[in-house]
Amino acid sequence: MLSRTADHLYWMARYIERTENVARVLDVTYNMSLLPTDSSDEAALWDTVLEIAGIRDIYDKTYKELNAANVIKHLVMDSNNPSSIYSSLRSARENARAVRVAMTTETWENMNTLWLEFGQYIKQDLTVSGLSEFCEWVKSRSHLFRGVCFGTMLRDEAFSFVRLGTFMERADNTARLLDVKYEFLIPMQEANDGAVDYYEWSAVLRSVSAFQAYQKVYRDAIEPMKVSELLILREDMPRSLHACYAEIMPILRQVAGSRQTEAERLAGQMHAKLHYGRMLDILKDGVHHFLDEFILANRKLGEEIQRNFLSATV
Asked: What is the span of the domain harbouring residue 41?
């Protein structure tokens, strides 16, 4: 496969996954903001959304005040924000349009319909009403896109790069989400004599559709260590770091063929760390330290994937 084609498919999938991730965090944060709280706590709550997306510096250049309306506007429709839902969907469609022949007709039509349907929301003020419904629409369309890909595409390199982009973006988002929330909530827990904020931690789980999975696995009250274990080490949790790398490893091995690449070595190293790691060992150095290292390692892997298989520019 031409590296240019692989590049378009890989980034198309990453942008679709990024769109869903932003919608998930926005939806959960909005619902949390409806609970009784003071203005400083609400500002901190919305600040975490910007930190998870990694766009606080971009936000500060555009908006003078940190509030719910501005954050929602910035993350949903702001064309100057490359991680907004608008920008991500536009980029996903442009990448898909460039390689229509590499996808099935159903996959392209699904992508095109997604973009056309999105047009109905552009003129709406989602800061006033309808944000939850919009986020549900984004999530359902993302699920439909992955389902169409899975159900219609030949299991060739094109399909592999679509899947690779999905899991690389998902791993990054889960790590950022847990890292920011852990740093935000643990000091609050210590200040409250160890009392765990049930609603905040359940919101973390709900943002990755893991609340029911947590209840099924642990059958216990929500504990930060167990939430971290579920989202880092559990291979049977679909959006965990371990589950993402369990998918990334064989994909890289398949697309590399007989070649030995640095990308496959880095992925294997991280997969082994997650597969054989223990939560007690992670806690010794700190969850924040582990996740910071993971985010950097995942970014380095992304650069190697770009260098080894996609276009040369990183």
From this structure: 1-153
